[in-house]
Specification:
The structure is a homodimer.
Chain A: H1 2-44, H2 51-69, E1 80-82, E2 92-97, E3 100-110, H3 122-127, H4 131-148, H5 152-157, H6 159-190, H7 201-211, H8 217-226, H9 230-255, H10 268-305, H11 314-334, H12 339-357, H13 360-391, H14 399-427, H15 434-442, H16 448-455, H17 461-491, H18 503-514, H19 524-544, H20 551-554, H21 560-566, H22 569-573, H23 575-586, H24 589-599, H25 604-621, H26 630-638
Antiparallel strand pairs in A: 2-3
């Protein structure tokens, strides 16, 4: 008898294991389908439905099947039981049912209106996985990869504009969406679709902040494939990556903005607390991410030079690199900061310093590993978004709200891009032309971050309405705008097929022919950038990597004993080679070069010189290529590596 | 007021997110420490505590800290609540507590005696993660990697012996441990430490089967680093990998062996049902794993030749490869088979067929990816085993039982290795010498699989006792025997520093000098192997890969239209090259070669010929090197790949 019961319990347990396997299998199946589709699309150069759109479509179909084919086997799950003895929900609950004790784990607080019939469908429930999986597992590799593959030279050249779009633009977008949605909410209350107390202005702002996160994946993949104009690419890439970070922190700040009295009235103290909170979290996350990267750089640097060769064991090097980068994320989360922001800046800093210290094998390994993780995570997210339309159990689709969101998102994007571009063009030497502005307007897709922020809290009815609307916006923008990217590029006559390295000079030369206002003031960012570049090149690079001039030549005389201790022996060997690099920097290479080539249409000698200089800088900085994987792969496929048979 | 409550709930949620981050951070920290230690050990050529032992040590210390520093904050969790309305435990429980509905998820059935004070310590609870994570996430990459990196030539040469040790040896070991433990249990009942009804003979057999899984990680890592004699390496590697698969299926079969009446009496029907179950699950898992690999081979083959170049997109190729291999595991689990067995044979088949179809870039990528995943999973498991000693909440340490297990494990290992080696030596041309047998006896470490099988069910007191004992056995064997491997190798005068490729000929030559009984009958395995080899080479390889002779030359005349359709164009190009390969096969290369070099001490011409043949076969079979990562890394570090800067 006892044996039999044990047998049953083993069976039960097995059933649970198999459940988990089935769900993972569904995801695997969707991903395999997606990969085969990508391959088919690539093969036939089909660009009207992008692969991310395809992944969503497959997810959608699978969600439909799961929803209407699987049945709810568990009738007891929908019932609410009373418990008078408890005063709050403990994290673990032990319940005695017919003399058997069962252990239950706390999952969440649930509103009465959410208790519906689908609650008990175990399949649906398991497919809608925990939002924390998004934030802790799926997003970090994508964001890290974005930071790690940042094209630094072009990024820094447009730093001022990117920061303006990311910070100011996101704030504008958030406020505009918030205001428009508040108008629509008022209208909905007026016609009786909504109760007044359910939807405050802060809720509208919350929706505005989460809908302000634009997606870097879909459009940029197409841009990269087509080798679109590098400046446009960099502006969009920089904007959408940084804007994600800003939107995440902004959403958090708004969600904890809690005026003491009337929630609709403006509370200055609470507002400034939120602003302070925003700045504190952003700065803290930035510091956390960078410091982990600096630690990694130091460890790999020490190993490389002072002690022994960690680079003889690329596996250990890669492991350390991976774990320290992930730790940056986790530490920020554990400290109450924003892990995504930390991991973004960790990626940027890793690419800038640590990458130089890695062995060639590790450089390749880390790049491929992060590329692969990014690829998988991206596709899982898009499949999941498709699934969520049918598997999420508490959708509230309100046509007026959805229409409002659609209007709000477009107005907000327009009032972000056009006014800011106008302002930026006042200061920029190299203007942002109209077709670029239109393309940026068109590329305001919503994607993973907006979805992840919306799914994080779906408890109250307003939040559920926001989630459903955000999901529809993602579908709409990815399918319509993602699919329309290639026609739009043609229509706006934006140049494609540009070699990003030659671009600088070609642009400068063409600029000199067309655009003759050379006497505009230098952009602020260039000035800021030069100071940073000098400091970085003279002190940080020699300290953290084995490139750049030795510290002994850059630090003042009295620091020499310390400098000698900290300098890599290989830097001494490079002293001669780096001599001219220092010369170039001291002679203000970055503006000098640029301006001189802008003066003379095709300055043969100078252009070659600058090509050499930039090429060299590329190698020194360990620039690791753009975000997408296609170009990269085609290149490496062209030069097959020798495969050693052990 | 409502706002405030929402605020609190957001805070609560945040708290939950951060908890997860803290635990992952602890693991990250342990892994970083382990990597730094490995690097230190490697640097100082320190081999008395192996890195896996180090990982366990760190886990142990961390477990101690967590156990005695963190406190139980949640008093209500230890209480059991009554619920009369329910008849069985639903998968989701909704409870109304002070007008708030909380959702609880079913975790497990719990025995009354397991409800103790530590139940409520959330930190401890979260650190002891779900056993299904072991089986679904951590073990598959390790086992797949073992299969993928199998050194096929040596493996097949010793196939008969390996199968004998794996199947017969594991069965012997299981029965011997079961019998000895039953004796100890009887003694414990006699002195009153245990109640008779708690521990049946089947429980003892269950313990025997889980303790029969030997660990391939620690010893083989050392062997690989030292380049120990290839035959000994292959015997141990093959045995421990296959033996894991056998032990897992055996444990499952024993756990569902349920005699109808007296559990101590022998029930023939139930016994044969278990045996049938064992065979069915093993064969089913084998078929599942191989068929997924064949599908992968076909897809990659088709892409390569018939349609277009999937190999132009190594990322897609790698992704497909990874997902299909994982799907093999998940499908087997979902179908009620054993995923680990499926993934092992999937790995072997992938290495044999699919690997040949991959682009050079993908070969490198898949190899590095699986190496990396294997490395991480391995170290996580060993850290976790260290942690579990202090964080697992229901340990039962019984000195007599532990002593019994220690004795049983040694007796069982001895009655596995020595008698089977004696029997095998009767049939083997090339004997297994005494020092090899002693080394195999010594290398019977217990590791991840034994632990994973034991942690899968820790509900009843006997199972808890088994788990605690298994954990101690892992510690003991890894520290003592793992640490003692290098001295033991010296003491037994086993050759180290052997180039695995030259080994075949050197061995054959030395064999001819020392061992003169050339007229022993050919081993069964060689005969079986030759048939398989011929079939594989003539039909499967040309069908699934683009190596080997074209199907048009191997299939009968009337099949030519089909054959032409299925043959890769590149195979036609290789026709001439493959002509002599067919010749070698037809002339019974494998024994021919071997015997001829055994006859003449150093047959200059023949030896070169066989070297060429084996070298060529290596390339054709896409042999991808041995399991460990160290040698590989040193080799690749020696030939740094060109790193293309995009």
């Amino acid at each position: 008898m006892e044996k039999l019961k044990e047998y049953v319990s083993v069976k039960d347990e097995d059933h649970f294991y198999h459940q988990g396997a089935v769900e993972l299998l569904i995801f695997n199946f969707l991903l395999i389908l997606t990969i085969l589709t990508i391959w088919l699309f690539k093969n036939h150069r089909f660009r009207f439905l992008h692969e991310t759109g395809g992944a969503m479509l497959y997810g959608l179909v699978m969600g439909l099947i799961i929803r209407y084919v699987t049945k709810s086997p568990d009738v007891e799950s929908g019932t609410i039981y009373e418990c008078e003895k408890l005063k709050s929900g403990p994290s673990t609950l032990l319940i005695n049912i017919t003399n058997q004790v069962y252990e239950y784990q706390y999952k969440r607080e649930i509103s009465h209106h959410n208790v519906n019939g689908h609650q008990g469908n175990a399949m649906l429930q398991k497919m809608t996985f925990d939002p924390s999986i998004f934030f802790n597992i799926l997003l970090p590799p994508i964001i890290f990869h974005a930071g790690y593959s940042l094209k630094k030279r072009h990024f820094f050249r447009n730093l001022g504009s990117i920061l303006t779009y990311a910070f100011l633009g996101t704030a504008i977008s958030c406020i505009v969406i918030g205001l428009i949605m508040y108008g629509f909410v008022k209208a909905m209350v007026h016609i009786g679709q909504l109760k007044q107390w359910e939807f405050h202005f802060t809720d509208c702002l919350f929706f505005g902040s989460l809908m302000s996160a634009t997606d870097p994946v879909t459009v940029l993949a197409i841009f990269h494939e087509l080798n679109v104009d590098t400046d446009l690419y960099t502006l969009l890439f920089g904007e959408s990556v940084l804007n994600d970070a800003v939107a995440i922190v902004l959403t958090h700040s708004i969600s904890i903005y809690s005026p003491k009295e009337n929630p609709n009235a403006f509370d200055a103290a609470a507002f400034f607390q939120s602003v302070g909170n925003f700045l504190g979290i952003f700065a803290g996350s930035f510091a956390m991410g960078s410091s982990y990267a600096v630690v990694t750089a130091l460890i790999s640097f020490m190993h490389l030079t002072k002690f022994t060769k960690l680079c003889e064991f690329p596996m250990l090097e890669t492991g350390l690199f991976f774990l320290l980068s992930w730790s940056a994320f986790l530490s920020a989360e554990a400290a109450g900061l924003t892990g995504i922001v930390a991991v973004l800046f960790c990626g940027v800093t890793q690419a800038h310093y640590t990458y130089n210290n890695l062995s060639p094998d590790s450089k390749m390994r880390t790049k491929q590993l992060f590329e692969f993780m990014n690829f998988l995570a991206e596709n899982v997210i898009f499949c999941y978004m498709g699934l969520a339309l049918f598997t999420f159990q508490n959708h509230i689709f309100n046509p007026l709200f959805i229409f409002g969101a659609l209007v709000a998102v477009f107005v907000a994007r327009a009032s972000n891009i056009y006014p800011l571009s106008f302002l930026l063009n006042l200061g920029r030497k190299q203007k942002i032309p109209w077709n670029f502005q239109h393309m940026m307007m068109f590329s305001g897709l919503r994607g993973a971050i907006a979805f992840a922020l919306a799914i994080r809290d779906t408890e109250s009815q307003p939040k559920q309405m926001m989630f459903s609307t955000a999901l529809l916006m993602v579908f709409f923008t990815v399918w319509v705008f993602g699919g329309g990217t290639t026609p739009m590029l043609t229509w706006l006559q934006i140049r494609v097929g540009i070699d990003p390295d030659e671009d600088l000079n070609v642009k400068a030369a063409s600029q000199s022919a067309s655009n003759l206002d050379k006497n505009t003031t230098k952009a602020e960012s260039a000035w800021l950038f030069r100071i940073w570049y000098g400091f970085d090149h003279k002190y940080l690079k020699p300290l953290l990597t084995h490139t750049g001039p030795p510290l002994t030549s850059t630090l003042p005389e009295w620091c020499h004993p310390v400098a000698r201790l900290l300098t890599s022996p290989s830097a001494y060997g490079d002293q001669l080679k780096d001599g001219d690099a220092v010369y170039i920097i001291n002679n203000d290479e970055l503006t000098e070069n640029y301006e001189s080539s802008a003066h003379i249409p095709v300055p043969a000698q100078d252009s070659t010189g600058s090509l050499q200089a930039t090429g060299k800088e590329d190698i020194q900085e360990g620039d690791i290529g753009l975000g997408g994987y296609k170009l990269q792969l085609q290149q490496t496929a062209g030069q097959p590596q020798k495969n050693s048979l052990a």
